[in-house]
């Protein structure tokens, strides 16, 4: 496989992976990292979920509804935001095998004067929203059309009394209007209309707990996850009701937590959506948005102990494989699990598949083996995922299921290989390239 450096003079990359804007289904996620290690963030067009650290990957309106954007999260005042177009094999409806052309094409780009720790696409628009230190403010970007190759800043969304706070966690939706849900602590959560910057909702809470993630469930409700392992459900229609966060059931204390919200199971009520909570110790707790205080299942992931990548923790549900989820942020792998059949015992679970590509194909260096910083699922290819690592590598990969049509059985699962590969080489970095913070998926 061939590693390609973008034609841009690279900066350092930040938080998240996201499939670019395009269709109405697109709701970004991203890839990020809150530490000092330089890296990249991803967002991709055509996907429906995802997020990773340090920078962002996203796609603007292009003929093919699939794209990826990458951004930097270094200390430099020139952190790149790039839009990449995946190779033809990722744009085809069916992937029959490896394709000779497996490199991403740089479509357009721009520069941020601050690190990009979070990146979200605003559905039904060509706008991106970024967050990052030194405060909890947001920045809005316009992805240019076919007549320009520039991603340009449009506006900033300030956050009151945010100096010294952690960077804001974000989620976007466009059901009623283009909204962004954002905040760094429970008591700073608010919903802002992106274009008018009007406050639609401000949380009523006295809790100053740090947030690790936020997610819209629909246009009226959203879910919060605190870094210490607490979940809170809020209703936009009841702004005076305090946001109460309850501890993740069966969760050990002293660990850092993140969450992933999955799609409703086929034939079930839309309000019945699974929630996976992942700890820095590798503990997975499954619950339901209707009653987050009651555990449905618990298991221990087969990850290094103690967890070494708490800032890059990422868990996401497969949009088209019921009960399947992926975890990353502990080492150079992405692990896929089938949660069907899990109980509350908390026993170690066997991965359905482990992607180890990042551990082998990057440039050598003294920084040690690369760490996966973000991943997300392809919305149309059930077993295809996109992942990024701290060495600047970006992979889209899947695995073959030769054991029948069950789609979940672990026996006989074999890797098909890396469907697409890219290496982001950043200026200002040490000898090697930096990685990505988060991964998201959305349609441009």
From TrEMBL:
Coiled coil region boundaries: none
Pfam families registered for this protein in UniProt: WD40 (PF00400)
Ranges of Gly residues composition bias in the record: 13-23
GO biological process: cytoplasmic microtubule organization; nucleus organization
One term under GO cellular component: cleavage furrow
Protein name, entry field: WD repeat domain 73
Annotated InterPro entries: WD40/YVTN_repeat-like_dom_sf, WD40_repeat_dom_sf, WD40_rpt, Wdr73
Highest taxon of the lineage: Eukaryota
Disordered: region residues: 1-35
Native source species: Anser brachyrhynchus (Pink-footed goose)
GO MF terms held by the record: protein-macromolecule adaptor activity
């Amino acid at each position: 496989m061939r590693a390609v450096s973008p034609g841009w003079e690279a900066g350092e990359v930040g938080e998240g992976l996201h499939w670019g804007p395009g269709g109405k289904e697109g709701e970004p996620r991203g890839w990020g990292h809150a530490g000092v290690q330089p890296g990249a963030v991803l967002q991709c067009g055509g996907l429906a979920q995802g997020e990773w650290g340090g920078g962002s990957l996203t796609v603007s309106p292009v003929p093919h509804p699939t794209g990826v954007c990458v951004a930097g999260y270094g200390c430099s005042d020139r952190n790149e935001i790039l839009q990449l177009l995946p190779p033809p094999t990722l744009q085809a409806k069916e992937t029959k095998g490896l394709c000779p052309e497996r490199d991403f094409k740089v479509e357009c780009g721009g520069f941020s004067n601050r690190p990009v720790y979070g990146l979200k696409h605003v559905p039904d628009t060509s706008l991106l929203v970024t967050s990052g230190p030194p405060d909890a403010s947001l920045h809005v970007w316009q992805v240019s059309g076919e007549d320009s190759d520039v991603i340009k800043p449009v506006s900033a969304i300030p956050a009151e009394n945010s100096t010294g706070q952690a960077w804001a966690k974000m989620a976007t939706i466009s059901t009623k209007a283009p909204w962004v849900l954002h905040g760094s602590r429970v008591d700073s959560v608010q919903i802002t209309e992106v274009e008018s910057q009007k406050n639609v909702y401000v949380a009523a809470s006295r809790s100053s707990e740090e947030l690790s993630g936020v997610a819209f469930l629909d246009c009226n409700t959203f879910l919060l996850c605190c870094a210490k392992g607490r979940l809170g459900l809020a209703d936009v229609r009841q702004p005076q009701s305090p946001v109460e966060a309850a501890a993740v059931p069966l969760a050990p204390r002293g660990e850092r937590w993140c969450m992933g919200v999955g799609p409703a199971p086929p034939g079930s009520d839309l309000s019945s959506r699974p929630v996976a909570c992942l700890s820095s110790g590798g503990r997975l707790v499954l619950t339901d948005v209707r009653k987050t205080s009651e555990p449905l299942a618990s298991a221990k992931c087969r990850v290094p102990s103690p967890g070494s990548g708490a800032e890059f923790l990422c868990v996401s549900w497969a949009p088209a494989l019921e009960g399947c989820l992926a975890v990353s942020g502990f080492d150079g792998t992405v692990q896929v699990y089938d949660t069907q059949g899990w109980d509350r015992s908390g026993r170690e679970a066997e991965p359905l598949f482990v992607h180890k590509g990042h551990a082998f194909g990057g440039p050598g260096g003294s920084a040690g083996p690369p760490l996966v910083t973000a991943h997300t699922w392809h919305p149309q290819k059930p077993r295809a995922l996109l992942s990024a690592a701290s060495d600047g590598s970006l992979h889209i990969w899947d695995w073959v299921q030769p054991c029948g049509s069950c789609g979940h059985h672990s026996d006989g699962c074999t890797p098909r290989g890396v469907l697409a590969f890219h290496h982001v080489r950043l200026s200002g970095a040490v000898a090697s390239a930096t990685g990505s913070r988060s991964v998201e998926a959305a349609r441009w």
